[in-house]
Automatic annotation (TrEMBL):
It comes from the Bacteria. GO terms for cellular component: plasma membrane. This is Nramp family divalent metal transporter. Keywords: Membrane, Transmembrane, Transmembrane helix, Transport. The keyword Transmembrane applies. It is found in: Membrane. It is a multi-pass membrane protein. GO terms for biological process: iron ion transmembrane transport.
Amino acid sequence: MSKFFEKLKNIGPGALVAAAFIGPGTVTTCTVSGASFGYTLLWAMLFSTIATIIFQEMAGRLGVVTQEGLGEALRKKFTNPAIKILVAILIISAIFIGNCAYETGNIMGGTMGINIVFPSVPARIWSIVLGAIAFLLLWSGSYKKIEKILVTLVIVMSIVFITTAIVTKPDLGGIIQGLFVPKTPDTDKAWLTIVGLIGTTVVPYNLFLHASAVSQKWKNKEDVKTCRLDTAVSIGLGGIISMTIIITAAAAFYGTSTEITNAGQMATQLEPLLGSWAKWFFGIGIFSAGFSSSITAPLSAAFATAGILGWNSDLKDKKFKAVWAIVLLIGVGLAAAGMSSPVQVIMFAQAANAIILPIIAIFLTIVLNDKKSMGEYKNGILSNVLSIAVIAVTLVISYRSMLLFVNQLKGMLGM
């Protein structure tokens, strides 16, 4: 038991992934899920968490064994010039451009959390302040410093959202049924919510972030076991945090006439039930979600771009810094400009994710089956079966996501 707790002290890269996927989009989607459908869609978040652990374990194992990121591994695996260029364009366009869109939402989410507590200060001011803090932290080039701050933010989110869920006195039977009896209301909104729950948790750019992060922390192949524990504990906790947001919204608002469309609104609506501390707790939670993701999104874009182009992935390298700086500045610029709802940009990012997720998952599985690079740590039968099963489900979800995206686009264009 003492060895187990000793290993827990080494938790880090997995917490980066948890901090990355628990962003404002996840908080808002979980809020809408609980308020609109009660505990019914908890199974989708459970599936998302398990799928994320499966893929991130593979990415982490790759990083520890090869001491390379996923981008570097793909560049070496696909040696045909045409395929290499195609893969590079796919990854850079989907992840770099997509992260610019998500970064806008991350900054806006962080400012939303602060504005819940301090409404007198204009949101655009907070956008610039948060952007400046994130810039200075990333510019330091210190992986250990970034890791410690993100681990702290994940702990803060855990305390905030788990405590809030307990205080709302949810229905335990409803929770168990929602987790283990998959049901889907036959509406576009329900499917869109499922797509959102999975799409904001099983995120392709986190595979690049994780593989590169573990190579920064662990240098010996024997550390694979520690990496697995880190992945399971951190991402499992991230999944629990997301579930508690669904549970809180379900317990407080499902079946009532109150319509909740975002997490900031839920913080205000919970005050009659939980008292004045509700806005403080939720404000801190939403701020932590937004700020942590505002650090990881630019960082993962830099890891992916540098890896696939063969650049140095050192956090202090000038080209590496240039990539994350562009993503961060675009996000801050759009947020500070008062972009109240960057729907079209976010929809593009979600569509890009829908396309690239199964593709990157397939690439990852191919790399993990390479005996030459992975040796005894290559995928076994169980890992491949689980990977293929999750890829199959994500393909179905991605197809459904693309149909919803096309229908929404037609509606916006009046077609």
